[in-house]
Structure formats: C-alpha cells, structure tokens
Amino acid sequence: MANSEEWRPVVGYEGLYLVSESGVVKSLWSGRGSRGHEYLLAQIPDSKGYFRVGLTNDELGQKWRRVHILVAQAFVGPRPAGLQLNHRDGNKTNNHWSNLEYVTASENSTHAVKMGLRHALRGSAHKMSKLTEEQVKEIRERYVPGANSKQLAREFGIDQSNVWLIGTREAWAHLE
Description:
This protein is of the alpha+beta class. Helices cover 26% and strands 23% of the residues. The chain is built from five helices and nine strands. The strands form three sheets. It has a four-stranded antiparallel sheet, covered by helices on one side. It has a three-stranded antiparallel sheet with strand order 5-6-7. The protein is rod-shaped. The protein starts with 6 loop residues before the first strand and ends in a 9-residue tail after the last helix. 17% of the residues are buried.
C-alpha cells in the first residue's frame, strides 16, 4: 500500500527540505551540492523534550529548528502575533499537524496543568505571593470578621481585602 502522507516545503527552506504532516523532515540535497538524493533527517530531542533538526541554507548556515514549528508553519499556517504553539495531546513528540494549535500563553499554561504536565503554582510557590502557608494559617486563626482586618493587614503587609479573602477562605482555598 502506498504511503499517502502529505509533504510540504519547509517555510524559509523551500527547495531544500520537505516536512510531512506527521513531522518527518527530509532533505532534497545529497550534501555534495547536487539535487535528487532525498534522505530523512535525524531528529534529536532538545533539553525540553522537543524534537529538532539541523537545517542548512546559504544565507543562514546551519540552524537547529524544532520540528513541531516546521509542521505548524507548513500545515497550520503562520503563527499569529502573541500566540504560542500547543500540542493538543500534551505529547511533545507527536508532531502531526492535527495535534498542533496556536493558543495564548494563558491557554497554554492552563492546558499544561490540565494535562498534568505542569503543576499550578499556588500558595507561596506563586511568584506574586507575599505570604507563607504558616502566615495564612495564623491570619485564619486570628481573623475576626469585621473586627481586626485592618490590624492583620498592617501586621502582614497586605491589603485589608486580602485579609478578608483569606479569613473567608476565598483566597488560599487549597490550604486546610
């Protein structure tokens, strides 16, 4: 049975390389300056687990390019400004065009957490946190609705509304 996989030129390397809909990349050059001898490129994982290939042209020399980006450029389209490329199934090695989509940074992060690829930064692990878990527990123990929010806010260096959110468990809800 014939392979029905679709191949398209690699954007920026037209006439030199092709990429398939599933993420296979092949060269149209023999390496000796003549055309006609096609070969598949070895894919090497980078430090983040994405497959990459080395592409060469006269203008740029050799550059390492991530395969999922090559597939998306050829089959999904140009990346819109401000968007990132996401693997729908969370598998960085599944570079089929149907597994790729452009999303916002926020959507990409939310997707990673939902897929179990990344843990949500909560509590003191969050970069914007001013409090530790112990301080939140202390605020909850000492909080009296409508009575001492201002004092606790001053003492812990936070806004009075944050004291109320902590005291009513609307903030730091993950903390027992």
